[in-house]
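Researcher: Last one for today. Full complex below.
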Amino acid sequence: MKVARYNYAHQLGADIEPLIADLRAMLVGGRYELTAEVKQFEAELAQFLGARFVRGVNTGTDALVVALRALGIGPGDEVITQANTFNATVGAITLVGAEPVLVDVDPETFLIDKKQLSDAIGPRTRVLMPVHLYGKPTPMAEIVALAEAHGLFVIEDAAQAIGARIEGQSVATFGHFGCFSFHPSKNLSAAGDGGAVVARNAELDEALRRQRELGQVGQNNHVVVGFNTKLDALQARILSWKLPRLEQWNDHRRKAAGWYRERLAGLPLSFQARAEGETHAYHLFQVRMRERDALLAHLRARDIDVVIRYPTPIHLQPAFAGKGWREGQFPVAEQLARELLCLPIRPDIGIDEIDYVADCVCEFFGKTARR
Ligand SMILES: Cc1ncc(COP(=O)(O)O)c(C=O)c1O
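Model: Here's the assembly. Have a good evening.
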């Protein structure tokens, strides 16, 4: 058996003719930029999230960049985030000229360590940027309260967590801005790149819109220096096609995660801790164990598409060599980089596939599968 990580045919559905017809009409009709399709997707996503202000942008990275710029963040400002995130979080902070300040993460949840976050706040701190990593929502109440107490902004990096909720409230709606990615790997994916930003209020939304659209307030009237990073109209149509099934897909991901947890219980490995009241989007299903690299090879040899997210933590990436970070500075992030392995999880993964993966993991440990 072969267990894949993605199945795009499933995401598009059996009959894609109506979608193709729409895309054809858009192509020949020249409906490319900030069209009705973009506005429609923004409205649908806002409804899905229970948000009022959503803007589509070109990528999840750009979503973070324009959110930072809309808050006026730049040189001299510090933004605090976590050492185990994807490169783009810290890249975005650096791209606007601000200084990223890293903190370590909790060894059970793999999310930002709140005590260290609080301790890292200094006179130049302007933004707290937690990441809802692997689809698990970061508890936001304390972070929002901390930001309020210090007069700081909050930007949620929700790139991996569309559909994740805390007590029913969607991620990306707690902070001043929340950012999503529709990269093909994500739970809701475009046929290429895409992203979106949720704003807390109309004023922030307008500041964001200007950053997205060359600082314009009407044709030929550029009031600030902005980027040009709009969600492509064809991608918006594709995202609208998929969005109605996202909730069902995330439900299936949660079910699949439960199957893995059941079948792998008792083995010398652990999982990302769960919390009361959270709705995990299970963008990734992580197992943590000492002999990670040997298990990776064992599963790949059995046609299981496992992957490491992420093998090198931010502070050890060559891109940030100038920041003065050193090995050993964020020990939990470093240990997780050595010990985490993503097992395949898809909205259509079958129980037979989960059984096969679990059997192969059990085989690795010399145990019989528990079924
Ligand atoms: C945590 C995180 N932040 C930001 C991004 C950037 O998104 P994109 O690839 O759409 O630029 C990603 C995904 O790639 C991500 O996983």
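The pocket of pyridoxal-5'-phosphate is lined by residues 59-61, 85-86, 88-89, 131, 157, 159-160, 181, 183, 193, 195 (CB under 6 Å). The mean pLDDT is 97.
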